[in-house]
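Q: Structure tokens for this one, please.
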Amino acid sequence: MSLLRDVEYDLRRFRGRVFVATAFVFIAFSFLFFRLVYLQLWRYQEFNAQAESNRTAIVPIVPNRGVIMDRNGIVLATNYSAYTLEITPSKVTQPLDALIDQLATVVEIQGRDRRRFKKLIDESKSFDSVPIRTRLTDEEVARFAAQRYRFAGVEIQARLFRNYPYGELASHVIGYIGRINTSEKAKIEDSDDAANYRGTDYIGKLGVEQSYERELHGITGVHEMETSARGRAVRRLSSIPAKPGDTVMLAIDIKLQKLVEDLYGNRRGALVAIDPRTGEVLAFVSKPTFDPNLFVEGIDVENWQALNESLDKPLLNRALRGTYPPGSTYKPFMALAALQTGKRNPAQQISDPGFFQFGNHRFRDDKEGGHGMVDMYKSVVQSCDTYYYLLARDMGVDLIHDQMKPFGFGQLTGIDILGESRGILPSTEWKRTTYRKPEQQRWYSGETISLGIGQGYNSFTMLQLAHATATLVNNGLKMKPHLVREVMDVETKSATPVAKEPIGQLALTAENLDFIRKTLVGVNIEGTSASSFAGAPYTSGGKTGTAQVFTVKQNEKYNAARIDERLRDHALFMAYAPAEEPRIVLAMVVENAGFGAQNAAPIARRVFDYVLLGQYPSEEDIAAVQRGQATRPIGKPREAATLNFPWRRDKREGS
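A: Here is the predicted structure, written as tokens:
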């Protein structure tokens, strides 16, 4: 019995083990079955996509960047194709310097190429493709292709390059593109445009290229490629073409722009010309300029140092960011403020002895001995300082501020280009918030006096002065200034004009406006700039100005010959024409040039002759204006429409 019980016990244990094993196998196969069903049904789409991605690759198609033109269709920024030799550091199997030395035996690699490559490497990631040579010749391409097997991580790429055919002309307006750096790449990756910038290596860095980047860039296309196990493209499966960037047409007249830049010559300064009816900017000059082609492929160290360390500051956009005391060009606005506030009437006179005594300080007039009895008309036409010393004292700094602010002084105009300076329109509140020490925060009455003649803390851009003058001659209607006239879709050819945007209407009485405009016409007929506009077949208005760079001591006289050139007075001028229905307004400064009547007003006369009469000055006249030795035009003017102009710079020159 005992033996039988042991057998039965062993059988039960065996059957239990078989059952457990069977159950385990069943459960395991059940898990496998359900896993198979889950993968085949619920996750089919996901794994199918992964399988497809293993055999396919998405290759971005970088769009052609849009063209930039002037208002007459002259191309100012375009593209051309060329081959580049590029290195991807993460794929290189030897030291970079050794690799470059070997490459130099196949294609020409100069010292500046090496320095530029090193600079780009520092700004890039190891898996980025970085050019060591650009614009290879066909012979160089063939030589490298024959020895490509020797150089792991080196490829020849066909690239589109930006070209600015007129070099330095209007460079501050057009701007330039450059290689996307690390910080810009991070911003793009965090933006909604990340997908659209796949494969894009260059982006607008300055000027219109930067401000209209979205329109100029276009829409990136894609190629879906079938690839081999080693990742090589086998065939194209599908394609979505790229959409080229839009054409951006400027309001700038590039012929006028070149005329002004030529008239400045080697002098420093800025000029802004605006159509007061629309806000379109006709010329936007900053001198000296620079060649934007230097930046397209990455500027080399020598050129960067030359531009960045130059005392002339060619990279500074003086029209947009340069701020200057407005000098006597401020007087018409002061006179209008006096009329609007009742502080003066046109007939009210003052006696000018040639100075204004305020406490222990004597504020000198521009004319030794004074102007005698001066009313408001004479104060503008003959530019009497004493009249405005008195007016500034009577108005006070805060009233001056409140009257000038609506014209846009010390305010951003909102122009469609980045980097605009606000300038300084002083007030007691401004001084309190600007300075830290209590004794510096206090406004002193003597500081108000020089504000009346556009000196003191006053500091504005030529864009602001032009904008304010445009508002003045446009009966108080403020139009937003804009550099771009329209944006055109290159595929549909449909153009979207930039809206003529009124941004405010100043509450100015017609009687007061008419009087101030009468004084400005008087300046160009019988006043300080009369000699420049003698013989003009149109009537214009304007106001000259001379702004101090530093203050002359009371017991000293200003003598330009004894002063360092960069400490001499600035020459300014604001003007408009024709006087009856203004079509153009300008404001300008010639740095350290002295009197506005001699060095600024002559340039304005040539600008008006070009815009209103279609005349281009003679070569001898341009040379005389550059030297500050001409007022009215000399020589026979040329018909602007007949000139073979402007002259292009070939993209392969001066690389």
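A few notes: The chain has 24 helices and 25 strands. The two ends are 110 Å apart (CA to CA).
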